[in-house]
């Protein structure tokens, strides 16, 4: 089923047009990759698709509803309940440990969500002995994998991942992409990258 539909979308910042007449239909149950060099507008496209930025022209339709027909509260609820985000920077909270950084995004702090957080972290190769560590005690790759677990805690219908493997070595990058590929069997994963090798 088609979940995202983009129609003649443009995005300008002042006189600079970074996206020009983009049209695209995306179905769930797959990984979709947006590939291009730095500065080509990949992140701007993702921010528009995820409602974090508003297109200058054109429309974006999610599950049959045009973003332009939704109020600010509806868009916030959509992001919270349907979308997950992995940014280039992990944005972990420095005074919280690994488990709390994942749980802070959970809809409810229940035993079930805590168990899911544990499963996500271990699935992304974060050991249980590291759950109580603070971000500064982790490697860059561990921090990024923790951020991915946080993005998945609510089982979002759409995961937006901006360079999710940039801080990972090749082996862990491959494992993360395999994990996201498995997740995408029942969801949509949108990956922005300039690294063709991780998509192979």
Query: How do the helices and strands follow one another from N- to C-terminus?
Result: EEEHEEHEHHHEHE
Please give the count of helices. Answer: 6
Tell me the span between the first and last alpha carbons: 25 Å
Uncertain segments of ≥5 residues (pLDDT<50)?
Answer: none
Which secondary-structure class do the elements indicate?
A: alpha/beta
Strand content: 25-35%
Query: Going across the major beta sheet, what is the strand order?
Result: 2-1-4-5
**Gross morphology:** globular
Number of strands: 8
Q: How many strands, what sense, and barrel or not for the largest sheet? A: 4 strands, antiparallel
- Radius of gyration, in Å, reads 17 Å
Helix fraction bin:
25-40%
Multimerization status = single chain
Average pLDDT works out at: 92
């Amino acid at each position: 089923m088609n979940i995202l539909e983009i129609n003649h979308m443009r995005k300008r910042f002042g006189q600079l047009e970074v996206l020009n007449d983009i049209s695209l239909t995306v179905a769930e149950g797959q990984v979709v990759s947006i590939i291009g060099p730095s500065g080509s507008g990949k992140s701007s496209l993702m921010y528009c698709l995820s409602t974090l930025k508003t297109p200058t022209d054109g429309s974006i339709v999610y599950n049959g509803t045009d973003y332009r027909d939704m109020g600010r509260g509806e868009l916030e609820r959509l992001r919270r309940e349907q979308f997950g985000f992995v940014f280039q920077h992990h944005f972990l909270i420095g005074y919280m440990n690994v488990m709390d950084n994942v749980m802070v995004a959970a809809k409810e702090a229940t035993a079930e969500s805590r168990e899911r957080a544990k499963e996500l972290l271990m699935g992304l190769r974060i050991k249980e002995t590291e759950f109580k560590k603070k971000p500064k005690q982790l490697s860059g790759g561990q921090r990024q994998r923790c951020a991915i677990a946080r993005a998945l805690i609510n089982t979002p219908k759409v995961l937006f991942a901006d360079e999710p493997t940039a801080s990972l070595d090749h082996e862990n990058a491959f494992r993360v992409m395999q994990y996201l590929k498995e997740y995408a069997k029942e969801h949509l994963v949108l990956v922005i990258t300039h690294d063709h090798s991780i998509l192979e």
